[in-house]
Amino acid sequence: MYANISPAIVSAFAQNPNFTGESSGYLISINMYGTAFGALSMSFFVDRLNWRRTATWLLTFLILFDLISITFGDPNYLYAIRFSHGLMSGLLVALAYAAIARRENPEKILALAIMLQLFFGGILILLLTPLIQAYGPTIIWLCLIVFYLIAFLFTPLLSNYTVNKNTAQIEANYASASRTLIAITLVAYFLFQSGQFAVFSYVIELGLTHEFDSEFTSRAVAMGLWVGGPAALFVTWWSIRTGRLLPIVIASSLQIISIAILLLPYQSLFLAGNIGFGIFFSIAHPYILGVASELDNTGRIAALAAFAGSLGLATGPGVGAVLVGESNYDRVALFAIFILTLSLILIILPAYFLDAKSRTQRVNWT
């Protein structure tokens, strides 16, 4: 949820006298770097933890750090607090990805998760943006705490999905794709998350530089999330009946075109660009992450993908903050177009490889 409401967070701190548009981007970036390194740490011991107990403790720490964030307005202190928050959230995200990766058709579950994230993200952006001027960032931290409290209700359902420890099956359980294929996939996912999150974090500010009013801009971003969220249901329905490569190429290409449309200073096109971005992100993302989830049997590569994705989420706004300079938000969109194109080129090989091994079924490594 922190990532999905990042435009509202950037806007909230950009209006804060202690911050600028640049330092607001750094705040998002630092939080997500913490998430990345938390996810990397979890990848080493995710199969040795009690997932339910671990998730409960991590949610408790997330609430604590958001409460502390309310009391600090100085950028230097807040950077440290949000990095710590990111570490806890990264551990939790990687644990969740590992759980999803052990299930049949992980892309379906990921699509449902993305739908829920975008749906609630759209609601929060629409509700929070008008309140930012009166309440500042405090209203954002409080909303996040509400979601963590809701997450507590689901921890009793979290199973370890233990890998079969039968001695005769251990070698097969821990088999995986080649390191080269894994590396290409992780780099592609890193670039995908970096490109899409760079432009998404600054999309409200991009609309404001087109001289659209804040009400229309926040509504356009929210509409992109609301329409885009249900689009993820396409993945749960279609799954991989035509393989992985074709849906990835089509959705990623249309996502890149949607970002290009955002550069045009017309309200109707800005709305269309946001909706297109939401729809095709919701389709491309679970397929790309699904490719990573199928590269081994245990879920460890999915946890590494959580690290790569979080690193991308951190890097995108950071590079965007550098590119923005004196409100040059169009540079961020151009950067996203370039990076997403490179990501698409890279993901073609692993998607094709998985399709060649099993076009319409999950790949099990032996």
Describe the structure.
There is one protein chain. The chain is an all-alpha fold. The chain has a single domain, classed as Up-down Bundle (Growth Hormone, Chain: A). The protein is built from 15 helices and no strands. The chain starts with 5 loop residues before the first helix and ends in a 9-residue tail after the last helix. About 3% of the residues have low confidence.
Can you tag this structure with a few keywords?
Growth Hormone, Chain: A; mainly alpha; 0% strand
Total of domains: 1
Question: What percent of the residues sit in helical stretches (DSSP H or I)?
Answer: over 70%
Specify Rg, calculated over alpha carbons.
20 Å
Top CATH class:
Mainly Alpha
Largest sheet: none
Within CATH, the superfamily carries the name: MFS general substrate transporter like domains
Question: Structural class, judged by helices and strands?
Answer: mainly alpha
Distance between the termini: 37 Å
Note the beta-strand portion. Answer: under 5%
The CATH architecture assignment turns out to be Up-down Bundle
Shape: globular
Order of helices and strands: HHHHHHHHHHHHHHH
Overview in brief:
The protein is mostly helical. Helices cover 78% and strands 0% of the residues.
Q: What topology does this entry show?
A:
Layout: H1 6-14, H2 21-45, H3 51-71, H4 75-101, H5 106-135, H6 138-152, H7 167-173, H8 179-201, H9 203-209, H10 214-231, H11 233-238, H12 245-262, H13 267-293, H14 300-324, H15 329-357
Helix pairs in contact: 1-2, 1-5, 2-4, 2-14, 3-4, 3-6, 4-14, 5-6, 5-10, 5-13, 8-13, 8-14, 8-15, 9-10, 10-13, 12-13, 12-15, 14-15
